[in-house]
Each structure stands twice: as structure tokens, then as C-alpha cells.
Amino acid sequence: MAEKFDIHQLYEAKSREDVRAAYDRWAADYDEQIVEGGWEGPRLVVAAAAPHLDKASPILDAGAGSGLMGLALKAEGFTTVDALDPSAGMLAQARAKGIYRNTIEAFMGEPLDLADDSYQAVLASGVFTPGHAPPTSFDELIRIVRPGGVIAFTLRQDVPPEGFHEAMAAHEKAGRWTRVAQSAPWQSLARYEPEVFHEIWIWRVI
Ligand SMILES: C[S@@+](CC[C@H](N)C(=O)[O-])C[C@H]1O[C@@H](n2cnc3c(N)ncnc32)[C@H](O)[C@@H]1O
């Protein structure tokens, strides 16, 4: 059995390569351990975003990890979903679920080799958290989502990661997106980190 998944180790990760390597090590046991921890981010993001989406147009699961959001999307009848994640180990788990059209090994926060306006939505669960994808990720997500499409994601509510509220407000002020919804906070990892709360944000690209 691989070492126990411990997201605390990553909140102060020194480099993105450390993050990638840690998820590669955790990949085989991630699903069992995160579900045991009470994590419902993927299901809740899909439930919140679904009324704004059509079932067939492409969706990007950004920071897809082992593919739990893909499972939730499939259960709701979505048919065209790609997975993006820097960890080859996590993407192998995602591919094994047989849900995704494409799997893309890449870091958000870097230029993405994806065409403008190629998705109706980007959904991200558990990725905008300390030590993971930075707030500059939004620049590329806005570029690859077609006008009228949505970007929906979880964000820490108890201790919002640095720069995210500023980045959200800056894109709103610049007329790049408009706010659709901000959920009530929920205790997201009740059994591992009872102090942690997340909320779900949904933005519509202009
Ligand atoms: C806590 S897991 C969440 C996985 C899945 N979305 C879920 O909710 O179960 C965080 C994932 O973010 C990925 N990740 C870390 N930094 C990233 C970045 N800069 N861009 C995209 N994904 C990143 C990790 O490899 C890992 O698979």
C-alpha cells in the first residue's frame, strides 16, 4: 500500500514537482482515502454546475486527479469530458475509469496547449487550494471556455488561498466573466480536517 494521503504535506509544497510526485505516490489509494475523509467536492461541483450545462458539449475537468468528477458527470449523463492534471499517476487512475475523452498532463498556471473557446465549461474540485494551482490559472481557463460557458470550482472558505478573491474581482471588473453563484460554505473533510470549509463559485465567461 502506498503512503497515506496527507494533503497537509502539500499546503506548503516547495515546488510544483513536489506536488506532482506526491500525487503520483498517492494515486493508487487516493479514491479510498479521500472518500473516507468525507470529500464530496466533485459531486457538489457537478450538482451546482449542471443546470448551466448541456449534456454533450465538451467539459474540462481541471485538476481531475483520479477522476471522481468524471464519475459524477457520467452519472448525470454528461458525455464529453476531458481530464487535465500534472500527475501521470492520478491520470492513469482517471483513464482506468473509462470516462474521459482525453487526458492531458499539464499544470494550470502555465500556458495550456488547448484552443481558444474549446469547452462549454471548466470544472475544478479541490485544486484551488494552497500549494496547488495558482489564481493566475483563471487567465487560461477564461481563454479556453467559449463565451457564455462557465467556470465552476471549489475554493477554501475558512482560509481563502492567497490572491484568489483579488483575481476573481479583477476578471469581473475587466468584464471577462460575471458571477453566477457562490454556495454556502460546507465542512468538506470532516474526518481529516474538521476546521476546513469550502465553497463553490460559478462564473460565466463573457
Ligand atoms: C486534492 S486532488 C483533487 C482531485 C479531484 N479533482 C477531486 O476532487 O478528487 C488535487 C489535484 O490537483 C492536481 N494539481 C496540483 N497542482 C495542479 C496544477 N497547478 N494544475 C492542475 N492540477 C493540479 C493534483 O495533481 C491532484 O490530482
Task: Provide a brief overview of the structure.
This protein is of the alpha/beta class. Helix content is 33%, strand content 23%.
| Helix-strand sequence | HHHEHEHEEHEHEEE
**Strand fraction band?**
15-25%
Mean pLDDT: 94
- End-to-end Cα distance: 46 Å
Structural class: alpha/beta
Present as ligands are:
S-adenosylmethionine
User: How many domains comprise the coordinates?
Assistant: 1
Q: How would you name the CATH homologous superfamily?
A: Vaccinia Virus protein VP39
- The low-pLDDT segments are none
Based on the structure given, which CATH architecture is correct? Answer: 3-Layer(aba) Sandwich
Shape: globular
Name the features.
206 residues; alpha/beta; 33% helix; 23% strand; globular
Q: What this model shows, in words?
A:
With 206 residues, this protein is of the alpha/beta class. It is built from 7 helices and 8 strands, in the order H-H-H-E-H-E-H-E-E-H-E-H-E-E-E. The model has no long low-confidence stretch (mean pLDDT 94). Helix 2 runs parallel beside helix 5 (88-96). Strands 1, 2, 3, 4, 5, 6, 7 and 8 form an 8-stranded mixed sheet that branches. The chain has one domain (8-205): Rossmann fold (3-Layer(aba) Sandwich), CATH 3.40.50.150. The radius of gyration is 16 Å and the shape is globular. Helix 6 (137-144) links the parallel strand 4 and strand 5. S-adenosylmethionine binds next to helix 2, helix 3 and helix 4.
